[in-house]
Amino acid sequence: MDEAKVGALSKRIMGIYEGALVSGMVYLGDEMGLYRAMHEQGSLTSEQVATRAGLHERFVREWLSLQAAAGLIEYQGDGLFYLSPEAGLLLAEEDDLRSMARWFDNFPQRTALLSEIPRSFKTGIGISWSDVERGGTSGRVQWMERLLRPWYEQVLVQTVLPELDGLIDSLNAGSRVADVGCGSGVAVVTMAAAFPESEFYGWEIAPLALDRCRENAIQAGVTNAIFHDVRQQKLPEDGSFELVTTFDCVHDMTSPDELATAIYNSMTPDGRWLIVDPTSKGTLEENIEMPLAVFGYAASVAGCLQSAMSEPNGAGHGVFGLPAPAMQELTEKAGFTRFRQLDIAHAMNSYYEVRP
Ligand SMILES: C[S@@+](CC[C@H](N)C(=O)[O-])C[C@H]1O[C@@H](n2cnc3c(N)ncnc32)[C@H](O)[C@@H]1O
Q: Average per-residue pLDDT in the chain?
């Protein structure tokens, strides 16, 4: 037994446990508006923070002490706490692409789901996104929406779509666009608002996500966005779509092969499929060295692999199961002949343009 190794590992394990506890505390701070109450306010006493947030001082003081111990809020002595501008950007701002409080949004639901996951390990059948909702953990729809909204609203139309030659012109002139696995519909609604001459259709399997899609369309006042439940209405394989998008969901599908074939058949002869899916290096050795490896594998066990194994013989790719060569092979099997990785930097995802 290497005692030094035991010591180092026990420190690491305790750090992991502390991380989970602090995650819960960050969730509480976001949920109760504590970071926002401190943002751009300079040094504050616990009484001042409690008054601004409308909360009881004693609990707020303990929470502030934890935040100071965790290094998120600075303790300046004399009972004064300070949320730096940098911490405020990350924990109190909503729309900045770098803001991070939203990551913690569904922490309680994620934790609650842990009691159901052992069943998947025993049976080999995962929990589909729609079953997650039935289990009362619908927070994942709002979480994912909050997580991805800034990217859809600030990057998709401005930076990603122009990378596809001539696409902006055809969307301005009027095209048919499908987004499969559309989640809460923010991508569809954002594109529909930007290109009023085009028609946008979203396909989803999770009913609560579909409800949210329709709410988002109404709130944005767009009338050119329509949403379908894939279980009731499949993607029409009628060669009519000039653009099909899949954002972060090919790896979630039980049958990505069927998806690729349906998309191929749904598309005009010169249409294009924009795939955004997690970057994978191809081997475990390389994947575990990636900066977001821990997050990715954890998200996979608890969510993406669950979805991809939610039917017998599900493909079960998992978050890192589709590196670029595997994605290319998948599309070529469906009939696509042109595969191009786009030169867009992203912490987690790769971008591909695929054409018949
Ligand atoms: C990681 S989420 C991404 C959602 C959305 N594209 C976004 O970026 O917010 C994957 C989505 O794929 C959906 N999904 C899984 N299997 C599906 C299927 N067979 N058909 C349509 N949607 C599916 C899930 O319900 C989930 O909303």
A: 95
